[in-house]
Amino acid sequence: MGRVRRSILAAALVFAACGGESPHDLVITGGRVIDPESGLDAVRSVGISDGRIATVSESPLAGATVVDATGLVVAPGFIDLHVHGQTPELYDLQAMDGVTTSLELEVGAGDVNEWYAEHDGVPARINYGVSVGHIPTRMAVLDDPGEFLPSGSAANGAATEQQIAEMERRLQAGLDQGAVAVGLGWAYTPAATADEIARVMGVAGRNGAAAHIHIGGSGFADARASLMGAMEAARRGGAALHVVHMNSSGAGMAMEMLDTIRAAQGRGRDVTTEAYPYEAGMTRIESALFDDWEAWEPERYARHMWVATGERLTRASFGRYRAEGGEVIIFTNPPELVREIASHPLTMVASDGFMLDGRGHPRTSGTFARVLGRYVREAGSLTLAEAIAKMTLMPARRLEGRVPGMANKGRIREGADADVVVFDPERIIDRADYMNPAVPSEGMHVVLVGGIPVVRDGRLVDGAAPGRAVRAPTGSGES
Ligand SMILES: [Zn+2]
C-alpha cells in the first residue's frame, strides 16, 4: 500500500520533471560512477528497473527508492571466479565484501546438474555457479577416498586409456549441463600425465570453455616450468587458459611468470590469471602437495598453521594432523611481493575463499575490500578504476564467450544486470584475519543483486535472496 502510494507520488514528480517517463524502481544518485568498460568516472545518477540498469544520467532521476551516494563510489558488483565456500553463511560475508557473483571454477563439480539442483533449492543472497572439475571427475573414475581433494589413487595413480576416455565423457556431460568452465588442479593430481591434461583441455577447447587450472604436476623443475606445461597442454587441447592464484602458485617467480603470460597474450594466446591479496594460502594437509613433508628442514613446519586450533606446526604435529586430515594455512610470500602481484595489470582479483564453522582463511571475507583499502587507498599501488576492472570487467570477459549472460555483468551501462556496489573509498577495509577470519569487511554501503538490495546502510538485508544461477546454455555440446 505504502509502496504504491510512494510510486504514484514519485511518478507525479517525474511527469513534472521529464514529461511522461515512469520512475525507476530504484535510483542511485550523486555517486562517483566508475564503469571499466567505457572508462566512465564521473558523478552520475543510475536508474534501475526490472533488475537492469535502465539509465545512466547526468540529470537527476526519480525512483520509488532513492539511494543517496554522495561521496561514494558506484561500481559494478564484484565477480569472484574462485570460491570453494558456496554456502549461505559465506555468501553473507562475500556480499559484505562487494561480491555479487561467486563462482567455484578451480575444483568444480563432478556432477554439474546435481550441484545446481542443490544450490537452486536454497535461497541465495548472491549469484553462484560452477565448473565441471577434472579433480572430482578423476577421483570418481579412479575411486579415490579423499574428501574434496584427492589423497589416494586420483593423486598418485596413473589412469588407463579407458579411464581417461571416461573422464572425457563425464567432463563433456558436465559442459552439456551448463558448467561455466573446466577446472583442473594438476598440483593435486600429479600422476596425471601431460597427455591426460591435454585431453581434458581438448574437452574444454571443443566447448568454448576456459580451463581454470591450479598449475603443478610432476616433472616440472619450478613454478615457471609448471606454467609452461599448462600452457602447452592448453595449446594442444585448443583451450583458453586461466591460471588460478598467481600469488601462491608463482610466489617468488610470479613476476617473471606474469611476463610469460603477457608475452603469450602478445602472440595471440588466450591466457589469463588471478591473485588474492594475502601472504598465506590454505589447503588440505593430507593432499599430494605435501607428499615430501618428511624431508623438510625443521623451520618449514612452523610456516604452517593448523586451522582448527590456530597453532603453528612442528614436524610431529604436522605428521599427526596429516594422518587425521584437515585444513592448513601456509605462510609463503612477503607482503610486498603479494601487493606487487595483486596490483599487476594482468591479475584479476579472486579470493579462493573457503571456511567451515567460522574457521578458515580471511581471504573468504576480505579479499576485495583489502585490495581497495590497503593497495588502492593506503599504498597507492593501483588506481581505483584499475582495481575495479580487475574485480568486474576482466572476470566477466573471461567467461562471456561460454556464458553469454556475463556480457551483461561487470558493467555500469544501460541494459546491464543491476549487480551494483556503492562503497566509501575512504573507509573500505577488510577486518578478517587468520585468527578471526569470519569478520565482515567495512565500507560497503549498498550492494544490489539484480536490482535488489542485499546490503543496505552497511548491513545485510534480512532475508534478501535474489541470487541466481550463472550457467552456460545447456544441451548444445559444442558452442
Ligand atoms: Zn582454490
Question: What do these coordinates show?
Answer:
- The protein has 16 helices and 22 strands.
- The protein is an alpha/beta fold.
- It folds into two domains: 2-76 and 417-460, Urease, subunit C, domain 1 (Roll), CATH 2.30.40; 78-279 and 332-405, Alpha-Beta Barrel (TIM Barrel).
- Strands 1, 2, 3, 4, 5, 19, 20, 21 and 22 form a nine-stranded mixed β-sheet that branches.
- Helix 3 links the parallel strand 7 (99-109) and strand 8 (127-133).
- Helix 4 crosses helix 6 (161-176) and helix 7 (194-206) crosses helix 8 (223-237).
- It is globular and about 65 Å long.
- The relative contact order is 0.16.
- The model is unreliable at 1-20 (pLDDT under 50).
- The structure holds zinc ion (ZN).
